[in-house]
Write a structure and sequence with these properties.
Distance between the termini: 42 Å
Largest sheet: 4 strands, antiparallel
Number of strands: 26
Strand order of the largest sheet: 1-26-25-24
Radius of gyration: 23 Å
Number of helices: 2
Strand content: 25-35%
Order of helices and strands: HEEEEEEHEEEEEEEEEEEEEEEEEEEE
Shape: globular
């Protein structure tokens, strides 16, 4: 068909309407580029950040050595004293040891209760509850140790803790360390290592095991276990809109992986380690490590190979499904990164499958600088995202 070579004739009013429409499209947030802005800098090995429910304009930032600071997001300034300082109790002997996770109780505004996960001087993982009725600072002497169990080696401590949509506290544990899970902890239901735990911290003292945990009543299993077969889950999250669970598990020698579990489907899940790495049988020189996929084991939704290329890496850092409003480009996308090859990616999940993978590394580099080692992401109460550079700065992901 011959195209119409005669341009249409518009009235002044129609032309004005079209012009305004074009201008609106040109500045629409959906068309804006993704970028970052510096929130604060100067932290010592920041590894976590977050916000209690109901709080705006502030960010709690955790340092691996054992301190937590409150940052004013408008000024980038810190409170004069740390919110928490337990560096004397925290082990930093191993590179992966330290103060690694924090979770605020849903009613923190009234109860002041929060929980931390750290490795202590006895090479144990400790899950500790603190009361902070005056909010700042916390008295270390008020610590209540809920759980303490040996880490065995100095790596693969996991360290993430967080409250699920069911109100229970979830705890991500690595397999205890070394290579190839030499003591086979991840598949051993008698060990807390290599597991996702689930406990009820509502009692005034101590904790309870939820009666619907999958291995309650099994004499050969620890009742706190919710799912298993993990190597070193580094940064996990619940989708604030759907309740779906995302677990980023650091790989052994070939593959890094992201596990996705729909809301309510992670009970008793087996993620395959040490038999499986990513989508394959775990390789070893004498074929003593890998094996067939266990019955019912879940495959990751996304894997990437070891290397320093644009779609490769060496140590995954899990993130969040973006549910904020300031960056429409990321809406509904799972945002994650690699620590050693500092790249930042995202994809959509549809029907349990990965869709529309994107690389945001170049766009998210700060003006005049470079993000070096992405140790963690963070989310505020509006679903906006932050990322932490292990060398000291904290950035917010924005639309330019």
């Amino acid at each position: 068909v011959e195209p119409n070579r005669n341009p249409p004739i518009f009235t002044a009013m129609q032309f004005k309407s079209l012009l305004f429409s074009a201008l609106a499209l040109s500045v629409s947030p959906a068309m804006a580029e993704v970028g970052t802005k510096l929130v604060a800098k100067g932290f010592e090995r920041p590894v976590w950040a977050g916000v209690p429910e109901g709080v705006e304009g502030k960010l709690w930032v955790m340092e691996q050595a054992g301190r937590v600071w409150i940052v004013d997001l408008k000024t980038g300034s810190w409170e004069g004293k740390p919110f928490l300082d337990i560096h004397e109790d925290v082990s930093r002997k191993g590179n992966e040891e330290g103060l690694l996770g924090l979770a605020f109780a849903k009613d923190f505004a009234t109860s002041g209760r929060y929980y931390v996960n750290f490795t202590d001087k006895e090479k144990q993982t400790r899950i500790v509850r603190f009361p902070s009725k005056d909010k700042v600072p916390t008295d270390p002497a008020t610590a209540e140790v809920l759980m303490a169990y040996p880490s065995e080696f100095e790596n693969h401590n996991g360290g993430w803790i967080g409250f699920g949509p069911d109100g229970y506290l979830y705890i991500g544990n690595g397999d205890g360390g070394s290579g190839n899970d030499p003591k086979q902890r991840a598949q051993d239901l008698g060990s807390l290592l290599g597991k996702m735990l689930r406990i009820d911290v509502s009692p005034e003292k101590g904790y309870k095991t939820p009666s619907d945990n999958p291995f309650v009543g099994d004499d050969k299993a620890r009742p706190e276990i919710w799912s298993y077969g993990l190597r070193n889950p580094w940064r996990n999250s619940f989708d604030r809109e759907t309740g779906d669970f995302w677990i980023a598990d650091v790989g052994q020698g070939i593959w890094e992986e992201v596990n996705f579990v729909p809301n309510g489907k992670s009970k008793g899940a087996n993620f395959g380690w040490r038999l499986r790495e990513g989508l394959i049988e775990t390789p070893s020189k004498d074929n003593s490590v890998g094996g067939e996929k266990p019955a019912g084991a879940l495959d990751p939704i996304h894997v990437y190979k070891h290397g320093m290329g644009p779609d490769q890496g060496l140590s995954i850092t899990g993130g969040y499904v973006y549910r904020g409003s300031a960056v429409p480009e990321l809406k509904g996308r799972y945002v994650f990164a690699d620590y050693q090859n500092p790249r930042i990616w995202s994809f959509k999940q549809e029907g349990g499958k990965e869709q529309d993978w994107k690389d945001h590394t170049k766009a998210l580099q700060p003006d005049g600088g470079r993000i070096n080692l992405i140790s963690s992401f963070a989310e505020d109460n509006k679903g906006e995202l932050f990322l932490l550079d292990h060398t000291g700065p904290v950035y917010q992901i924005i639309a330019k």
